[in-house]
From TrEMBL, chain A:
InterPro entries: ABC_transp_perm/SBD (IPR051204), MetI-like (IPR000515), MetI-like_sf (IPR035906). GO terms for cellular component: plasma membrane. Residues 15-197 form the ABC transmembrane type-1 domain. Pfam families: BPD_transp_1. It is found in: Cell membrane; Membrane. Belongs to the binding-protein-dependent transport system permease family. This is ABC-type glycine betaine transport, permease protein. It is a multi-pass membrane protein.
TrEMBL record, chain B:
InterPro entries: ABC_transp_perm/SBD, MetI-like, MetI-like_sf. The lineage of its organism: Bacteria, Bacillati, Actinomycetota, Actinomycetes, Micrococcales. Residues 25-210 form the ABC transmembrane type-1 domain. This is ABC transporter-associated permease. It comes from Nostocoides jenkinsii Ben 74. PROSITE patterns: ABC_TM1. Residues 221-268 are annotated as: Disordered.
Length: 210, 268
């Protein structure tokens, strides 16, 4: 506890970096997964290809993916961009499937009614399908949010600063208090991310409030 | 850069010897197999018991919540705490193996429990009705029906273990992770990228192997083509009963994972 209080400034700085490294990919991933998921939903032939393809991406271990990023992006190994891109890949891999499930959860007659009212494909997506798919997509976002926060801590092994630094430093210098602080801070941040997604879900689905 | 990585991978000298790629690969697979065996021996009986009796649900919930702990935190904490009490090679390998087992148990446990729990009560009643004892119901009915989800839990565990065994090289475990960690420490990008490619390849192969096993082992009666009218009818009947499409054996899908049962999230 005293360790955490003595290093509050450092912890806050690392936590903010952690928020960016986990949060930006979460939003980018969602933005990319929606059109991909929509495409898979509209063109059923594509669905298995996309689900299997993104599933394969998810099998790549995080440390390996972080290290392979410079090979693909031409960045340097210490560049935080590597982590952002790698985490975005994981998020997309997780969410494409969720978006497809979400769009499938929209009742067919609702969709038909929207079509009958003269809504085109895009307006139907934006005004009818996506709002109704929010609960399913939010469930996937919660999984992705918690998993992102956890995976990002591994980036401390390749020298990208975030809360995982407390873990590696605590281990290397044998400071159990620092290590435990790191674990608790990461857990707390995961909880904050999870609550944030739930909060946004509530805002977007006022009709479900009871 | 790519040429360097390729040269490192293609050099036969890097493949032979006690610290060669072949030996590291065998080491990685051996550690992973031991860990998965131990984890399966713990998690499958426990999950079957919890699903069959409906007791011990807190166990599943606890195991799932524990997944949010960052893996490297767990790895470092247990190494730091246990390391000084152990001697020789064991000081490096035992803490890692314990952590890997801890990480492999939750997905298998969750899959097994979900598999047994999702068995249609009518099927269970019918099995009792024809005179099967409680343990026969578990072995002959619930077990086989739960198999697809047990295997998909196992599949997630395989990925988790292969990935985390790589990271465990940081606390001294052998295996392919050595190339990533040692290459990083000595600033040899070709070595770490070569190692990373090998690890990614191993993970991919392990996942494909698990997918093949899923196909081979699951009873044909539980497998149905998604397009046949019969399956559509059954699915409709199922959803009419209020069970979403997440219950039941049709969770077996090409990727073998489902958001509700997949272990993936925690972290790798």
């Amino acid at each position: 506890m005293t360790w955490a209080l003595d290093h509050a400034g450092q912890i806050a700085d690392l936590a903010w970096r952690h928020v960016l490294l986990a949060g930006i990919p979460l939003l980018l991933g969602l933005v990319l997964a929606i059109p991909l998921g929509w495409l898979a939903h509209r063109v059923p032939v594509l669905a298995p290809v996309m689900v299997v393809g993104t599933g394969l991406l998810y099998t790549i271990p995080s440390l390996a993916l972080f290290i392979l990023m410079p090979l693909m992006l031409g960045t340097r190994i210490l560049d935080p961009v590597n982590v952002v891109v790698a985490m975005t890949i994981y998020t997309v891999a997780l969410l494409v499937r969720t978006v497809v499930d979400g769009l499938r959860s929209v009742p067919g007659d609702v969709d038909a009614a929207a079509t009958a009212m003269g809504l085109g494909a895009l307006r139907r997506l934006w005004q009818v399908q996506l709002p109704l798919a929010v609960p399913v997509i939010a469930a996937g976002m919660r999984v992705a949010a918690v998993s992102n926060v956890s995976i990002v801590s591994i980036a401390s092994l390749i020298g990208v600063a975030q809360l995982g630094d407390l873990l590696t430093d605590g281990y290397n210098r044998n400071i159990p208090a620092e290590l435990i602080t790191g674990i608790l801070a990461t857990l707390l941040l995961a909880l904050v991310f999870d609550r944030a997604v739930v909060g946004v879900e509530r805002l977007l689905t006022p009709w479900r409030a009871s | 850069m790519i040429a360097n990585v390729w040269r490192w991978l293609a050099d036969p000298a890097n493949w032979s010897g006690a610290t060669g790629i072949a030996a590291r690969l065998v080491e990685h697979v051996r550690y992973s197999a031991i860990v998965l065996l131990i984890a399966a021996l713990i998690a499958i009986p426990l999950g079957l018991w919890a699903g069959h009796t409906g007791r011990g649900r807190w166990l599943i919930a606890t195991a799932n919540a524990a997944r949010a702990i960052p893996t490297i935190g767990l790895l470092f904490a247990i190494s730091l705490w246990l390391g000084p009490h152990l001697r020789g090679d064991l000081a490096f390998s035992l803490p890692s193996i314990i952590v890997l087992v801890l990480l492999a148990v939750p997905p298998i446990l969750a899959g097994t429990y979900a598999g047994v729990e999702a068995v249609d009560p009518a099927v269970r009643d019918a099995a009792k009705g024809v005179g099967l004892t409680s343990s026969e119901v578990l072995r002959q009915v619930e077990g086989p029906i739960a198999l697809p989800l047990i295997l998909s839990g196992l599949r997630s565990a395989v990925l988790q273990v292969v990935a985390t065994a790589t990271i465990a090289a940081y606390v001294g475990l052998g295996g392919l992770g050595r190339y990533l960690i040692d290459g990083l420490a000595s600033g040899l990008y070709a070595v770490m990228a070569g190692g990373a490619l090998l690890v990614a390849g191993l993970a991919l192969l392990a996942d494909l192997a698990m997918a093949a096993i899923q196909r081979l082992v699951v009873s044909p009666g539980l497998r149905r083509p998604p397009t046949s009218p019969r399956s559509t009818f059954r699915r409709a009947a199922r959803s009419a009963r209020g069970g979403g499409k997440q219950t039941g054996p049709d969770v077996v899908d090409p990727s073998g994972r489902h958001p509700t049962t997949s272990a993936t999230p925690a972290d790798r």
